[in-house]
Design goal:
Layout: H1 34-62, H2 69-94, E1 113-115, H3 117-122, E2 128-133, H4 143-156, E3 165-169, H5 173-185, E4 188-194, H6 199-207, E5 211-215, H7 227-237, E6 241-243, H8 251-267, E7 274-278, H9 283-295, E8 300-306, E9 347-351, H10 353-367, H11 373-385, E10 394-399, H12 413-418, H13 426-436, H14 441-448, E11 456-458, H15 463-473, E12 477-483, E13 490-497, H16 498-507, E14 523-527, H17 533-539, E15 546-549, H18 556-559, H19 563-566, E16 570-573, E17 583-587, H20 589-600
Helix pairs in contact: 1-2, 4-5, 4-8, 8-9, 10-11, 13-17
Amino acid sequence: MEYEQGLSSAVVQGRPFPSSVPATGPSPPPKLSREAQHAWQSGQDIGEKTSQEIRYQIERNESAESLSGEEGLREKETREAARSVFKMNGKFADGPYSGILDSVLDAIGNTPMVRMKRLAKVYGLECDLLAKCEFMSAGGSVKDRIGKAMVEKAEREGRLKAGDTLIEPTSGNTGIGLALAAAVRGYRMIVTMPAKMSAEKSNIMKCLGAEIVRTPTEAAWNDENSHMGVAAKLQRELENAHILDQYNNTANPMVHYDVTAEEIITQCDGDIDMVVIGAGTGGTITGIGRKIKERCPKCKVVGVDPKGSILAVPDSLNDEKRLQSYEVEGIGYDFVPGVLDRKVVDEWVKVGDAESFTTARAIIRNEGLFVGGSSGANVWGALQAARQLKKGQKCVVLLPDSSRNYMSKFISDEWMAEHGFAPEDGAKVKEREKQFGGARIRDLLSETGATSDVPFVTARLSVEDVIKMMHETKVKEVIVTEDSEADGKTKLVGVLSEDHIAHSLQSGRCAMQSPVKDIAFKKLAKALPSAYLRDVAKALDFSPYVCVMDEKPSTKKQAGMGEHERAKISLRKAGNSRECPHFLGVITRIDLLHWLATKQK
């Protein structure tokens, strides 16, 4: 990749920041009233008095060398504490934030490097495990850097002018970085992002003034309904709208080549044996990897790619769960972005959701670093790759974003249990067993007469048509299906409730003329009539419905299953089912409560 000239102001020569801050002795402000001059002089007198007291304390501390016994020990401890504080403050004075910054954009980058001693010890690493804490940047992620860089590049090129609109398809962090820049520079910001991305990211961008458009998570990158397809459509429809395009914008890898990599090299005194970075758009690993290859030829560049993504090389590494959805955000793609140069990567590590989230929680618990899920993925990759390193060698791992974005996701014990990444609370299990005992779904169906006539609607129907139909038939849920173009078979898309439709309309996720396929609830719990109600109750903690399917086996494999095996409830996307199953009904939480009330009577 040929790097453009133009970020010369960001290029770091030698040390990235001045080693000292020039003194700016006090001088009286001009044109003050007599009262103001008196107040100013009083302030200087107080400052001089404080300085005299500090000099006296220093002289007193130095004289402690001649003291002995307990008094001398106390003075020595006081002196060491003062020197420690001075040394700490000196680090701040030595950095770029010692004065007043012009805007928050000047606080982007210059993130600390932290040694993760406890985690390295827990996992038996001999080398130094060093964390580049990008989550401590002004906007909370490594993407702050490219948000600022892409806006500045567009301004230099004359593409952006006051009042223009920025549009960006993103997993969230680039949207935050761009929204931060747009807020400061005065641009309108529209972000398109997949539905799976956390509500916290969306809410932060809204607070920054961005407009959010959610798109289906399962839509392929080249689908017109994907976050990229919707962004392109908005750009065509709006005047003076620009997609800065992090996937192909050279400012993305350039800012990491010019700045981020220089910070890492300087912080490690030019001695790095391995650097581990997750790949999303690929700008971070491309920019940092290329600069480090030039400056530290012995350093090994390790890329981290989630299972389900196809970025790793050789392609056979991507076979496990190829193009299947995954929960970790911010890394991995179903296409290879233009800014990703995979030749700079020496080794790839594939990582699953469970390893990513449990490792992220381990980082928080053991190191006190408030990181996001992709940081967990990167560190897990580092823990695998760095086993080959010896004592005294350095492994740098990049921590892209903050746990601020995931308070309702992997930070939550309930969310972890829901997705099978952590064991469920034992007290909840016992409570459900006490409530439901050995009762099964078939008991609920026979004793309460739960409805089984949930209507089916086609995926192409508009939201308006479905609302009208639900009103006329007085139903609260509908099953959404569509016919496969390949073989004509009907497949299940999902379920819709009146509450879900109302929420989608209010949040702007759909319009009255939108097809119901766009908003159908696709992650459904499915169960046979032989499933235990206590398991249904658990499923309803995480899904608004449990779809009850006909118990009649449709294959020899299912016919050979035991009762316990067939009774399991699977929580999966409805679209994974090739044919629309025969439904006996949809169970909701109110159905369970009705059954409990009936039993108590």
